[in-house]
């Protein structure tokens, strides 16, 4: 029978609230064992190496911002406290990265540090002289401008966003709409990765079940050659949103229950109706401050139909 799934206009309530049986728990344990045997979890040594890369990159961007602040002759106190945030996103932030996974990271800098000169020219020059960095590529003209490199053998894609603040607090919250005020589209797109990952984790009922299910679905998609935005298939964020929606529909289910339901749900989905984790908000809804940014909504923009959508990405490109 048809499942009571959501349309673009409304969000459906959960389909099934019953929790797992002992047999479901056993099946989940077997599923997790298979994922580990398939090499989908990195070793403790690989985890430590990845954390070292992120820590050392944080140190580099901190020194970079302090150097720029000093050169521009801002007050000494300002240079002393100047810093940038290095925030991983993508599979690492979602907690589903595996052996050899790339690291996607966002550098968040203060208002006076720009992307074109300061990020690509100055920081790019610093990275070019860093012994640990190889295969450095600067791609300022990309849809989402990026610095690509290997840092001690780990592939890193580095984005930049300058926020409208004179200093970047270490506890900066990127979830609210106010952080997007006054930003250009390239900056909004750069912030998208962190915002979407955090919003997905906030919206799923149970993060552990979501992660195990997503690992399984990603493994299935990669084995069949259908895991790629560049090739016209669903990419990492898209698969995460699809799995998150199933987790919302079965909030108490174990991964061994969620995996078959994932395929059942989307084999019956009324495409091209979009998959949404939350109702779409518009500037004219009477909520928070208007931003004047494009809103993803197939009701108002038919070209948006058929994409997956997370609330954090509703103000620019579909996920």
TrEMBL record:
Q: What residues does ATP bind to?
A: 89-91, 102-104, 157, 218, 227, 236-237
- Say if the entry is tagged with keyword Acyltransferase: no
Q: Where is the protein localized?
A: Nucleus
Quote the InterPro entries the UniProt record gives: NT_sf, PolA_pol_cen_dom, PolA_pol_NTPase, PolyA_polymerase
Cofactor(s) this protein cannot do without: Mg(2+); Mn(2+)
Binding locations of Mg(2+) 1: 102, 104
Name listed for the protein in its UniProt record: polynucleotide adenylyltransferase
Q: What is the lineage of its organism?
A: Eukaryota, Viridiplantae, Streptophyta, Embryophyta, Tracheophyta
């Amino acid at each position: 029978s048809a499942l009571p799934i959501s349309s673009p206009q409304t969000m459906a309530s959960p389909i099934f609230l019953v929790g797992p049986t002992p047999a479901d728990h056993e099946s989940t344990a077997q599923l997790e064992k298979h994922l580990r045997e398939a090499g989908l979890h990195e070793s403790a040594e690989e985890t430590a190496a990845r954390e070292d890369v992120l820590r050392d990159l944080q140190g580099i961007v901190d020194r970079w911002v302090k150097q720029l602040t000093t050169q521009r002759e801002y007050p000494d106190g300002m240079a002393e406290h100047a810093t940038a945030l290095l925030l991983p996103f993508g599979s690492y932030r979602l907690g589903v990265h595996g052996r050899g996974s790339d690291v996607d990271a966002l550098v968040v800098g203060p208002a006076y540090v720009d992307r074109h000169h300061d990020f690509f020219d100055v920081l790019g020059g610093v990275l070019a002289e860093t012994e640990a960095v190889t295969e450095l590529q600067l791609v300022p003209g990309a849809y989402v401008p990026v610095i690509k490199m290997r840092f001690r053998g780990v592939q890193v894609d580095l984005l930049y966003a300058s926020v409208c603040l004179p200093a970047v607090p270490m506890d900066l919250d990127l979830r609210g709409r106010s952080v997007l005020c006054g930003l250009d589209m390239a900056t909004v797109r750069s912030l998208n990765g962190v915002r979407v990952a955090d919003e997905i984790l906030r919206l799923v009922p149970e993060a552990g079940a979501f992660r195990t299910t997503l690992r399984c679905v990603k493994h299935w998609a990669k084995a069949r050659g259908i895991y790629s935005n560049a090739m016209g298939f669903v990419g990492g964020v898209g698969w995460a949103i699809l799995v998150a929606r199933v987790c919302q529909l079965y909030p108490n289910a174990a991964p061994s229950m969620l995996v078959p339901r994932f395929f059942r749900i989307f084999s019956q989905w009324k495409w091209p109706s979009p998959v949404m984790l939350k109702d779409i908000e518009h500037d004219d809804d009477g909520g928070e401050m208007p931003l004047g940014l494009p809103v993803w909504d197939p009701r108002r923009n038919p070209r948006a139909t058929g994409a997956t959508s997370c609330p954090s990405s509703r103000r620019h490109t579909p996920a």
